[in-house]
Design a protein that fits this description.
The complex is a heterodimer.
Chain A: E1 4-5, E2 9-12, E3 18-24, E4 35-39, E5 46-49, E6 63-68, E7 73-78, E8 87-95, E9 99-102, E10 106-110
Parallel strand pairs in A: 2-10
Antiparallel strand pairs in A: 1-3, 3-7, 4-5, 4-8, 6-7, 8-9, 8-10
Chain B: E1 3-7, E2 10-12, E3 18-25, E4 33-39, E5 45-51, E6 58-60, E7 68-73, E8 78-83, E9 92-101, E10 109-114, E11 118-122
Parallel strand pairs in B: 2-11
Antiparallel strand pairs in B: 1-3, 3-8, 4-5, 4-9, 5-6, 7-8, 9-10, 9-11
Classes of the chains: A mainly beta, B mainly beta.
Chain lengths: ~110, ~120
């Protein structure tokens, strides 16, 4: 079993760039893909990144994902921040034992 | 665009039962795995159950094993979750989520589309 740890909250100003980290507790971050879900207040989650760095159609290229084996973590980077990006963001990965593992979520405030 | 619409949530006494439904449309339901993911008030996401496209593989989180039963009817494009012996800690919004396998063929899947959710409240 492993856990995914995210910062509880981050904040940044409109137009700036923010990066949200997701650190895997055991096992390699590269051993299974990482997804990122956005959940705006009062709404269902939507997928913004899948398979580490792929964007679904309709997701702006301001959103990008990456993994870093040296820190055993994944990152979601949002550039050119807009107020509409204010939401909770969850990372998620998978393994044969734990199945679908979610991070605890990061609240992004754009102020 | 893919559409997933949950129903069946509500207020139920501890020990009671509820059956959630998810109506799927605008995609070939029978070719996708499906999942129920819940979110307790103010908390994070938890996948409680999975069912493969043909119902041949089923998974339950330890927290619901033995109490919840997932099923699907591919002819009706519908997913179900029968919840028995409900507890206060089952209180959550329950989302129906479509599963998609990784493009590389690697083992596993992720949730590419989500419904709007249905609230289940277990309380006396």
């Amino acid at each position: 079993n492993f856990m995914l740890t995210q910062p509880h909250s981050v904040s940044e100003s409109p137009g700036k760039t923010v990066t949200i980290s997701c650190t895997r507790s055991s096992g390699s971050i590269a051993s299974n893909y990482v997804q990122w879900y956005q959940q705006r207040p009062g709404s269902a989650p939507t997928t913004v990144i899948y398979e580490d760095n792929q964007r679904p159609s309709g997701v702006p290229d301001r959103f990008s994902g990456s993994i870093d084996s040296s820190s055993n973590s994944a990152s979601l980077t949002i550039s050119g921040l807009k107020t509409e990006d204010e939401a909770d963001y969850y990372c998620q990965s998978f393994d044969s034992i734990s199945r679908w593992v979610f991070g605890g979520g990061t609240k992004l405030t754009v102020l | 665009e893919v559409q997933l619409v949950e129903s069946g949530g509500g207020l139920v006494w501890p020990g009671g039962s509820l059956r959630l439904s998810c109506a799927a449309s605008r995609f070939t339901f029978s070719t996708y795995s499906m999942n129920w993911v819940r979110q307790a008030p103010g908390k994070g996401l938890e996948c409680v159950s999975y069912i493969s496209s043909s119902s041949s593989a089923i998974y339950y989180a330890d927290s619901v094993k033995g109490r919840f039963t997932i099923s699907r009817d591919n002819a009706k494009n519908s997913l179900y979750l029968q919840m028995n012996r409900l507890r206060a800690e089952d209180t959550a919004v329950y989302y129906c989520a479509r599963g998609t396998s990784y493009s590389s063929g690697s083992y596993g899947s992720y949730f590419d589309y989500w419904g709007q959710g249905t609230l289940v409240t277990v309380s006396s």
